[in-house]
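User: Modeling request: complex.
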Amino acid sequence: MAITFKGVNHIYSGGTPFEKTALYGINLHIEKGQFVGLIGHTGSGKSTLIQHFNGLLKPTDGEITILGKNINDKDTSLKEIRQRVGLVFQYPEHQLFEMTIFKDVSFGPQNMGLSKEEIDKRVKEALDIVGLDESMYEKSPFELSGGQKRRVAIAGVLAMKPEVLVLDEPTAGLDPKGRDEILGQIQKLHKTLGITVILVSHSMEDIAKLVDRIIVMHRGKIALDGSPKNVFEHVEELEKMGLAAPKIMYIMKALKSKGLKVSTDVLTVEEGAKELASLLKKQK
Amino acid sequence: MFKDITIGQYYPVDSWIHRLDPRVKIISTFIFIITLFIANRYIGYGFTLFFLAYLIFLSKVPVKFMLKGLRAIFVIILITVALNIFMTPGENILWSYKAIKITGEGLYLAGLMATRLIFLIIGSSILTLTTSPIQLTDGIENLLNPFKKIGVPAHEIAMMMTIALRFIPILLEETDKIMKAQMARGADFESGGIIKRAKSLIPLLVPLFISAFRRADELAMAMEARCYHGGENRTRMKQLMIGKHDYIAMIGITIFTIIMICIRFI
Amino acid sequence: MNKIVTSKGLIYEYYTHNDKGEIESKETALDDINIEITKGEFVVILGHNGSGKSTFAKHMNAILHPSGGTLLIKGMDTKDEDNLWNIRQSAGMVFQNPDNQIIAAVVEEDVAFGPENLGVEPNEIRKRVEESVDVVGMSEYITHSPNLLSGGQKQRIAIAGVLAMKPECIILDEPTAMLDPIGRKEVLQTIHRLNKEEDITIIHITHYMEEAIKANRVIVMDHGKVVMDGKPKEIFSQVERLKELGLDVPQATELAYHMKKQGIDISTEILTVKEMVDAIWQLHLKG
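Assistant: Request completed. Predicted assembly structure:
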């Protein structure tokens, strides 16, 4: 088990007029190697939740175990947790500060106290994973395009070789091509490195294609938790929360309700096309 | 939750003092501070105490907020008191040890100085607790306007203050975000000696400055897109207007000042 | 004056410099743009990052000047310094970052900023502020601090701030890029309403094709050129071409495209879920 939450609450500014409960009674188990999608609106508690994954926030109540370590235990080294659970925030390119890309990506491994050879090795590997080659190493991060900067920031977290990778809306602000590139890289990462990946997003279409499991958050609670097919079945519930299923789902459901014998077990447009095409052809 | 913090201690409640024109309050505060230096006897400060107590009552702001400001200068008060107690020359020696002596005059002066400082802080607090930062900015701009003729950039100062007020909460939030992002990469802002801690601030300050400059750039473009071209021919939606309450306040502070002058010289 | 935007042979070039200050290369951001936008249109300009769409927006607002060709806004030449403020009052602009265009710490003060700059008389400003905030549906927040608002709400305030200057045209440069789905919907509903009810010309720049479905006209840009220009259905049915340009199509359209590839006789001029459901149902009945 990679991450376990038992009865976790998080209250901000407790005891003041500004008190706000961001998380209510969260119970969660994430297994090693899973690819999890976390969906919810601004204010649903997503950001608060993910900051508990690497000890940036501690729960007001409840227990959290990350990679076998109890987060509330005084002996638990937060530094170690933060190396093993990598967290990439939204618009991560805003954290770049070094003179060259190489130096910036080295920041994480340096904080881990590794040898120079090891640091250099990791930086090269990480930059390679995100598709930035040697010619870029000495460039200033500020010379790059938005998408490239973002990849540098992600490499900065990958260089710490985390066992769990949490990404908060990695496609925010990117155009379709940029979005596809980053999601493709994340998918590759999951497959080749076998790490646990938690992807926060509010694009249903993006998530449906990638993840094994979807957790839907609403107003600080976990509202739905299951495979994409299971979660997207609950169309009305999702809509009440201001979310939506992928459009293809709506098309299939509408056709089913009209009497057409289609499976609503469809997540992507390609699947839908195959299903509908075979159905229509069969009629002939 | 940085979003909820109001800058500069403004305590939003509806009171007679809150409703006064900010210019009247600003000028009154200045006059009040001057009277603090006119008074030089405890009788004067006694009267001032009644005056302040009445104002605090009128402002409907809880006393503990008024006293919060004192915490910040507690050390300064201590130093002032200590200096006055030990360094004042005088005849009435109460205690001495080798070269150090405490005189009655010293105690008297120390008490006076401390009282002066405390009243100064409380008086200023009444201003900032009852006047929103925006009102303060409007008031200051208005008061500085006549000085434009001698080259004081009144409009630009007010614009800078307005923008600062708007962006301080945003930059605070951004600082928090950057800190968390760097901590997620193993940055340590807490441990180590002064030099180590100063160095550890670089991953925080560099992105913050860059972000601030970027915001400034975008903001400038947005301002120009809305036809901003400096203070020339600009009108203002909010017009500060003196009402009858303001006249009463002005009379009040004048009477107070006259009494303080009398106490001093009679 | 029926034409809000007229560009003839518009070219914009700039030089990039290396660390030593020497010229490294010449970039052509806009390459011979010829577009006319008529009063009352709702135009969406699509393109991937770097296609030139934002550069074009900045020209329309006279933030940038053409290197070649002309750009007229309501007949006024953007190259002419004297026209600057009139152009910006006629064609207001809303930017991408909700925070970095709000100046004041109170909503009504920020919305008043534009008219104040124009020297409008104070009572009139107050009137305009109340109207504009009402039109964008944010009346209840008029004395609030912008810090407490959501992204979508902040963008609506930005729109109100532009509206208060009584422009004939509003240009929005990727206003939804930093918003969540709810915020995006709020902004789109607002600008469609402004277009229909207040007859304001809208030029909406985005890379989200879902936002172009209800437009009158879609212009697609690539490498500084206009590569497609027509009604949404015409544009989106060209699925292959759009994918080559690095853009998306609505899911319904993509579905039609894939089904066509599988041999089903279905039109790719389908944009919405409803249209798709109807089309498939028709095919089912036929078969």
